[in-house]
Design goal:
This protein is an alpha+beta fold. It has a single domain, classed as Ribosomal Protein S5, domain 2. About 35% of the residues lie in helices and about 25% in strands. A five-stranded mixed sheet has the order 1-2-5-3-4. The N and C termini lie far apart (about 75 Å).
């Protein structure tokens, strides 16, 4: 099996992953996943698809991620890994789909409008 290349997006984050059979190492931007994401919650989010299909420790994953914050980056990586697992074996698709890992979350930050404080917040109204 050759290297599988997929992409995942969330908010303004874009994650490109390269997955191949191996011992289960995950490197994000040339760092270990535990070093790049110091909190346990972000590491769990990244590894969710692998744990769902019992593929933890079977693939080496190299990730290039840019844009956004830590949460958006972790969820972009999760989507990319889920897509790669579907390419490996089509039987991985139903459990990943059931958990919602194959759905691209398209919610983005609403832009700020002119004449307002934020996207929707108006300035304080003064009657007199």
């Amino acid at each position: 099996m050759e290297v599988i290349n997929t992409i995942g997006r969330r908010k303004t984050s874009v994650a490109r992953i390269y997955m191949q059979p191996g011992k289960g190492s995950i490197s994000v931007n040339s760092k270990d996943v535990a070093e790049y994401f110091p909190t346990d919650i972000m590491q769990i989010i990244v590894k969710q698809p692998l744990n769902t299909v019992d593929a933890d420790g079977k693939y080496d994953i190299k990730v290039n991620v840019d844009g956004g914050g830590f949460k958006g980056q972790a969820e972009a990586i999760r989507l990319a890994i889920s897509r790669a697992l579907c390419e490996v074996d089509e039987e991985n698709r139903p459990p990943l789909k059931k958990e919602g890992f194959l759905t691209r979350d398209s919610r983005m930050v609403e832009r700020k409008k002119y004449g307002r404080r934020k996207a929707r917040r108006r300035f304080q109204f003064s009657k007199r």
